[in-house]
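[job 0412] stage=fold_complex status=start
inputs:
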Amino acid sequence: MVWQAIARKEVRGLIKPRRRRAGLALVALVFVLGGYLLPTTTASPETADLAPYLTGAVTLVLPLFGLLLGYKTIVSERESGRILLLLSLPHSRLEAVFGKFLGRGGALALVVTIGVVLASALVAYPFGSLQLGVMLAYLLVTLVYGLAFVSIGMSLSTFTRSGQRATAATFGVFFVFVVLWTELRAPFRIALDYLGLAGDGLPDWALFVYGLEPGMCYSRAVRAFFAGSEQGAYLGPDAPFYLGEWVALIVLLCWVVVPVAAGYRRFEVTDL
Amino acid sequence: MAAIEAHNLTKRYGTLTAVDRVDLTVEEGEIFGFLGPNGAGKSTMINMLLDFARPTDGRVEVFGMDCQRQSVATRERMGVLPEGYEVYDPLTGRQHIQFAMESKRVDGDPMDVLDRVGIADAADRAAGGYSKGMAQRLVLGMALVGEPDLLLLDEPTTGLDPNGAKAMREILTEENERGATIFFSSHILEQVEAICDRVGILSDGEVVAVDTIEGLRSAAKSGTKLLITVDDLDVVDLDAIEAVEGADSAWIDDERLAVNCSSAAKIDVLVALNDSGADVLDFTVEEPSLEDLFVEYTGGRS
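[job 0412] stage=fold_complex status=done
writing structure:
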């Protein structure tokens, strides 16, 4: 496998434009800023406090930059003809998709890691404390969440030949998942009620479906793992296991794997 | 084993047949020119060799390996200059060659390659700022990495000035002497004429002729025209000349004898003339240009 060559080239090209570097630095900055501000709100902050404190910012910034990193990967290479150069060399299309995902996901993972580590240090010094295990767990969950959007962006990039359409679809996904989703709960319940499938609240299976959105999964996992929350329709004592944080984590992992895999399958069977 | 072998290769886009049941064999060590007007199907054919496009029917092999099922293995033995590519704008020329070396898993100094294609002085500039000709040289350099057994070039002289085209020809000749098979498409006839061992002419998706340039000339109806100066035109028997096999017509043209004949019949005409008692003082041969042949084979759509 020579996908390393593609990933390396991808990173080299990615970090070259200053605008792109600035954007990536912004991601790390969000975490650092959180680490800087958190100690002003509480007397002896712990690493675990960072996670719920940052959820609002993270669920805005990571979808944005994840999608931005992913959505042009294939379609712009196709439109411009750079893909011909790539696939003239002995690479399979699988290596091309995998190498690009690795390069772009790796770039995002790097800045998130830098951000989380610096933020944890700021929380710990001088009055707080550092829990290394917690930091690693938080980093891991957050990385999975960010990579899910790189994956979604890349899949959008493989399903169309038109860059404009990919852009529109990306904007649509961002709008629905990040802006609109929390507002959809009520209409969803009313619609199910109309069909005679729901009463005053959503039934468990409907909660599961509604909770599949990556942001929902992420904040659920953060609340359960790092804030110790045991309340609400998802994490409360009466909720079935499939509404819990572990299943949310598995769903997040699926968001990383499934979109890019589906995109690859689509890309594999079409002419360039 | 043949370098390229296509059997019944067909590609249809909806109702349009871009490549129509092509059978073609390119032997190892040849320089093969693939000639045809724009839109004849040359690029589609090359795209199927590279698995950029999948055949609707038939198959194509490179060194006995199926270009679709063993696509990576076939491309491991190829160096490719595709058409309609774009370079990676932010990466330098050196990084491009480096990438090709990593992809083909060969070691070496990228500068040697850049030197060979004549853009060493631009090695550390972003390729986005290269001219079309420099980009073309760069991608040729990428194709040369790893001494490929087959060089596949789609319209290689696009964007090159005459010097660049000459340098390209010299590199291709060197590569061929090293043992590489060279397959390139072009709609520019002089280039094909200059270096090709054999030529295939594609028209409307069909291969209408495959032969050496010499062979194409002698097979073409518009044959060779001989203009012969003899000491005494009166002893020349036009009927006897026309009776020579391969000779088409003979007439007196401006104090000289003019004969239309196939390329192979030239000597026979001169011998017949000698036999009839005329002394040949001088003669010139007007071969049909490749352009004439091309127009003849493709029905004038160039």
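[job 0412] summary: The two ends of chain A are 22 Å apart (CA to CA).
[job 0412] exit 0
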